[in-house]
Design a protein that fits this description.
The complex is a heterodimer of chains A (about 550) and B (about 450). Chain A is α+β, with helices and mostly antiparallel strands. Helix content of chain A is about 40%, strand content about 5%. Chain A contains 21 helices and 7 strands. In chain A, a hairpin with a 6-residue loop joins strand 4 and strand 5. The radius of gyration of chain B is 23 Å and the shape is globular. In chain B, the strands form 3 sheets. Chain B has a 16-stranded antiparallel β-barrel. A two-stranded antiparallel ribbon of chain B has the order 1-2. A two-stranded antiparallel ribbon of chain B has the order 14-15. Chain B contains 6 helices and 22 strands. Chain B is mainly β. Classes of the chains: A alpha+beta (about 550), B mainly beta (about 450). The interface between A and B is medium-sized, with 30 and 29 residues.
Chain lengths: ~550, ~450
Amino acid sequence: MKLKISALTFAFILLAAATACFAQDTLIHGPKELMGHAASGGQLYRRYCVGCHGPAGDGNGENAIWIDPKPRDFTTAVFKCRSTPTGMLPTDDDLFQAIGRGFVNTNMPAWIPLTNHDRADLVAYIKTFSPRWKDEPPAKLISIPAEPAVTSTSIMKGRELYQKMECWKCHGSQGHGDGPSAATLTDSKDNPLRPYNFAIGSRFKCGQSNEDLYRIFMTGLDGTPMPSFADDIKPEDAWDLVHFLRTLQPMRTLETRVWKDWTAAHPEEAKALKPLGPAPIAQADDEAGTVKQSTQQIAAQASNPSSGSAGAAPVGDPLTEKSKVKDSFVALENQLGLAGASTQAAPQSSNTAAPEAAKTNATRPSAAAQADDQAGTVKQSTQQIDALASSSSSGSSAALPVGDAFAQKSKVEGASPQAAPQSSSTATPKTSKANAATPPASEASAADTTVRKSPLSGGALFVQVGAFTKEANAGKLAESLRQENFPAFIITSKDGAYYLVHVGPYPDEKSARIALGELGRAGFKPFILYPDTGGIAQAGN
Amino acid sequence: MNTQHSSGGWGLRFVRSILTCAALVVVVVFTSSQPALAIPAFARKYALPCSACHTAWPELNSFGQAFRDNGYQLGNDHDSPIYQDSGYFPIAIRTQPNWHRESTSNQPIDAVPGDPTTTYGGKVTQHGFDIGGIDIWLAGTLYKNISFSVLPTANLDANGINFEFENAFFRFDNVKSRWLNVKVGKFELDNMISEKRFLFLSGNGGSYQSYHFVPLGDSNDFALGDNQLGVELSGHSVNSYTRYGVAVLTSNSGTPTLPTARSYDTYLTFSQGFEAGRLGLQRLGAYAYVGQRPTYSLTSGGTAISGTGLGTKPFYRVGFSGDLNAGKFEFLPFFMHGWDNVYLGTSTPANQALPDGAQAPSWNGGFIETHYHLTPQFVLTQRDEIIRMSKQALPDNPTNLGNINAYSVGYRWYPIMFSRAGLAFHNEYSLVKTYGSPLTGAFSSSVPVWSSSAYVGLDFAF
């Protein structure tokens, strides 16, 4: 009997010890609270997740190389889908929901067939990969006010916001994810990614309800170029934007019905709506001969996608300056080695060689001055042109256009993902504020381009290969370069007048010059964009 | 006694021939390949490890079941092959090089080879290196919500290689909603416990006795484990916890030729999964198969004309099954009640008189299979199965004639389990005890037949 009692006692102690070891790791709320245990989650992680996210949780699983977009790196604890402010850790419920929901257009499936306990255990295990979960206190949830009624006024306001906040730059004027900056976007690890295409009509990355959509742009998708707009727009405005974005989707929603009814009832007003997207390119149509910009503006934009003051340059009179401007523009392009807005890009046509003098840095200023003289319309000094042409780091925050949400968000987040991916993705609110107070120079330059991130930031070098007035032509060149394994992308000047084809980034001049040589041998007339000196080097093979 | 002899003379000869055929079928089935239903082609397409969809491949877990129910789609808007690299081809290959030993007791053996008058009951034992059939399986999506599967199987035997189509079907997925999917072709019945995806390979353990059982002397060729030809409507909830299936099938047990009869069978199945806290997912299901089989055909010059079966007589199989989990333990209970029309049970053409006292045979069968998933790459397996006759077709048959007890135990270790390929080391021992020895002179249920299989092999899929 005594032995029996001892055995029972021993069993009880064992059970208690096992229970203690099996401590709660995470708590999932919802209809029913669930406790997740990392110890159990380890086996599940090995079964379901390790192939992509890797044994160390760093996103380097055996399949990662084949996957696009790349698997999440849990060691950084940066997550797209959160109900917390940008830069903060997500809640356990956020992770729990993400596992069950999956991510559309990625390899991450919806693990909804797993039991809730399994998913809770996985959440607990995922949190073991980063010390941030221990070091940082739980973040406060953002508040989501009740959704106002869907009205045509709300949708109209949302439409205006879409334009004003420059959502179109990534998501496109029709929401197709094909904005001028779309091709240049990368995540915090420099992996390319595409903005969401509303026309597909699939669920969003972080949900499918209006509330999910609201949450997405009020929290941002950390680790991606999608910023948080929490500091830029009021909650009621955010709901307006939600209502408008819904009309871009092909589904039958309340919003699409309201908007359809309104356009049917107000055909004239609907017709008079300004198209979304970049301002009309009045001066860039070579064939039509409707160039409106002054020479220095064009020169600055053509050679300097991220000019600090290009956006502030005055617009000339197209009727009086058209021919002169065009002539001087072509001359200046030749001087600068751009070989024309459409000729530089095509290797075949690049035989129209730029003047020899333009092939070195030393001769460039005088060449530009010569162009000034010839055209007789250049109003800026060569120094100005230099500054504009190189401009990646010369722009000032003062040049930020009012209402440039991307630029402002860059400041708030301290985000220059390409230059310093980790800093943006792991930024805490504290550091974000500090960055907002003293934005890096690269951010200022980002403010002046349609790309949110300056390709010239962070000391990296880029090589410009072509400049086009038609995006399609730029796209063709970029694609052909990519097929030749050049990391080509397109950026646009401030007002969208030119589509510039760049390759890079290159960490140093040596590697940039290697690319320069290869491109030169291929018949292009490329030049290096120097962020620090503002100089432009002509291809010098 | 006389009655037994009078009916037994005819009956025994018939039963003996049936048994011989059955034995041949068993040999063919057991020595042919186990259908491969672990599909590395999917793993390659979606960059997921085998363990994502399989508890231990080829058995599906809840995620794999949902994937299958969705028409081999993850639903991430990249399911259509247009999103795949043009070099991708949805093909998988599986086979099992192995060594196995088969032993069967109380078999009629000629003491003097070639002299049938010297027959006695003895044990037959065979062993040697062997290879399972080679499955070359193509499966995937033709387009979003249109999936397919084609599984030609190459069976290797003494006569060389012969091919057969284990399955071949198209499936229109998510028609209107996930609750309506339409599959047409030859396919596995939507059994909750799939014989095509289970964890046993040996001659005696490599099939569920309950799925293939027919009473001794019965002419019904139906087997729940056989793939069938027809059309299936099915549906499921988003997580596939709730599932249903309705199939209309030709009455030929999946043989891809003209049906023996101009009749159709129906299969109904339903299952519901639910979470039981930390125990895990539990699933219970029920099924019913109602069919007909012809008892004779039109003849021409005394020879049966194919596809003109007449005198169709009904049969049914009903029961329930489960998939119960308790941590690393998984229990698969299964129960079946079977009933065949008396004409089928006695193999009597419907245009002829039944033997005296004949009645419709019925029986009950079932098993409990247990898996212990030590890790995603190691699983211990065990199964106990019994079949008990409730009613014998012929009154003179011993009540226990045809009863079966079967046991299996084994393990599978997966040293390789990537998203490109899988390899399992498989070790198994199975034992089957059947009441009813085909010895000369009498069918004696008092002389059980013991069949055993020992199996050591490598099961690989690429």
